From TrEMBL:
GO terms for biological process: base-excision repair, AP site formation; DNA alkylation repair. InterPro entries: Alkylbase_DNA_Glycosylase/TA, DNA_glycosylase, HhH-GPD_domain. It catalyses: Hydrolysis of alkylated DNA, releasing 3-methyladenine, 3-methylguanine, 7-methylguanine and 7-methyladenine. Gene3D superfamilies: 1.10.1670.40, Hypothetical protein, domain 2. It comes from Oryzisolibacter propanilivorax. The keyword DNA repair applies. SMART domains: ENDO3c (SM00478). This is DNA-3-methyladenine glycosylase II. Signal peptide: none annotated.
Length: 218
């Protein structure tokens, strides 16, 4: 009697259609991925579906831990009636600071809201642009550097092959999983990621999960 092949679970809205294919590729090409992927069951990357919220969460999360970022975001998100650019622009600076945001992050969030509210960004165009073109457009906004733009590519646009070499968690996770904790250079990380292509975003997500049981989310 032939073995019954287990079907992959159906994807939910906001989940990338390539996920199961990517996992099969990574498990076949990379010994660490083969070990990590089964540990997290059906969990996967998913988009919140809102460009402004994704970028705002990325700004809040800059240079702090996932846990700290979630705590600050929860307090900040409770301030406006809804998390829209127009509502954020109505907030008082003192209230934003009291939520745990630095003065600089408040400035960045206001500038981001102004870009969206003023129509300086055209999200409808992004689906037809390549990764580097989108990064170039986003880094023109105050407070958005390459790391934040890459988080946006991964978490909002669900681009499959983003390798965020400026991400401390990725570098630390590669050190832990591939080099027994030894220091890792960007060059080392890039070499490890050769086996991940064209699914670097998926592999990066599993590396993050190996460090923190909380799913990374922006």
């Amino acid at each position: 009697m032939a073995a019954i092949k287990k079907e992959a679970p159906a994807l939910l809205p906001g989940q990338p259609g390539y996920w199961h294919e990517a996992c099969r590729h990574l498990a076949r090409k990379d010994r660490v991925m083969k070990r990590l992927i089964p540990q997290y069951g059906d969990a996967m990357l998913s988009s919140r579906g809102d460009a402004f919220v994704t970028l705002a969460r990325s700004v809040v999360g800059q240079q702090i831990s996932v846990k700290a970022a979630q705590s600050v975001w929860d307090r900040f998100a409770a301030l406006p009636a809804s998390m829209t650019p127009a509502e954020v622009l109505r907030l008082r600076v003192d209230d934003m600071r009291a939520a745990g945001l630095s003065a600089r992050k408040v400035e960045y969030l206001v500038d981001l809201a102004l870009h969206f509210d003023g129509g300086k960004l055209e999200p409808a165009r992004w689906q037809d642009m390549d990764d580097e073109a989108i990064i170039a457009e986003l880094v023109a906004i105050r407070g958005i550097g390459r790391w934040t733009a890459e988080m946006f590519l991964i978490f909002h646009l669900l681009r499959p092959n983003v390798l965020p070499l400026d991400d401390v968690g990725l570098i630390r996770g590669i050190s832990h999983n591939y080099f027994s904790g030894e220091p890792v250079s960007r060059s080392d990380a890039r070499e490890v990621a050769q086996a991940w292509r064209p699914w670097c975003s998926v592999a990066t997500w599993y590396i993050w999960r190996s460090l923190d049981p909380l799913p990374v989310s922006y």
